[in-house]
Prior knowledge:
Low-confidence stretches: 62-67, 414-418
Radius of gyration: 31 Å
Oligomer: single chain
Order of helices and strands: HHHHHHHHHEHEEHEE
Amino acid sequence: MVAAFLLNALGFLIQFLPCAIMIFLPFPQEAYRFRRKAIFVLMSVISIIIAVLFSATLCFRDISLYPRHIVISNAFMSAVILLVLAAYVLLVRESFIKKLMVFFIVLFYAVTDYVLVNMIHSFLFPNVPDDMTYTYSTSFLILFAIATALLLPLMLAVVIRPLKEYIQKIEPQNMKREFLIVTLTTLVYFVLTIYCATWFARINLLELYIPMIVFLTINQVLIYWLIFRESVRRESDIEQRRTMEIKQLQYEKIVGDMESTRRMRHDIRYHYNSLNDMVDRGQLDEIKDYLSNLIDITIKRDNEVYCKNMTVNGLLQYYIGLARDENINCEVRAKCGELSIEPTDLTVLFGNIMENAIKSCRKCPDNRWINIKIGTVQNSFAIEISNSCRGIRLSRRFQTNDGFLPAEAFLSDNSGGGYGLRSIAYTAQKYDGSAKFCFNAEKEIFTTRVRLNMGGIAV
Length: 459
């Protein structure tokens, strides 16, 4: 009895635990309601408890009521899968379609593992009698351990790691119909397979397992194709929008320069008139002081240097000038030299961040400020820009007290949010970095943090 208890518990744990952990791996930390480590520990503990309950249910049942141990095993496993799915949906703050994608991909791994082990076991041990005490006999346990050791690293390297990148790029609302058709057919087939394996355990392998493998393989290819197609379309849309943003920023700069020239001409006329009045009154000392102050102001404005990087310095000069025209107080701490980042990417990055900050400050008539911190840390280019902000709108899946959030958390029809944030996030992903955003409702502060990896190039 003790041997049966341990074998059943270990077998269930080997089969179940990798799947319970794997469904969380493709999502970033910001998508979790709790810390990633805490969730992994929780799922591990729950898996151990469920494995013990599973084994206890099998070993201490009334055999006369359950003529087949496979009935209990599959029913128990199906119920646990539904419970894990419910917990998974609650613990991950992402689109339901994305979560469903990952769930079915991991379910494919679980079913493939199960089918392969049963096929190999049937060929290796065709005449072993069915012992109702064991769901996982010694031979089954060894085969599941070998299958997990071989398939799990392959699954992580070939499927989960690429999926982590592509899952962040797709827009689920654009592919609901196609994906739901694929996933629902998978679910129906999975249920039918469990039913057949439970009530018709002696069915010929060619009639059950091989068609199942073929169907699920085709299904997974379709899912990957949908994800890849949508991610490619998404990248194409983002590149087109980035091109439009650069052109828009260039146009705005031209308009801004023209407006600055107009104001400069107006100011020059004012200075000429002031000097002419002082000449008429013979105020020579006043003229000298006036010209001295005017020269100091002009030199300070034309030669204001924030950092050694020409692109970053030029962008700061331009946007800080726009902010000051709006009576926004700006504080800048910038320290960066040569960067291995494309000037166009820097233009889009600063353009979106500063445009959002200036728009947000316009809604704060009594307290307008922007605080800019820029520097390099361990071969990464880091930006933190905070600004006054009266309010933002969040997706229902997120709360303001959740700290730093991904771009998807912010809706587009209010300051500090929208497609601009997604463009910032896309630029960060392009350089294997990150972009996070936070709104402090109590202090009325919106903060943007961006980190770009410069690929080990020293600055």
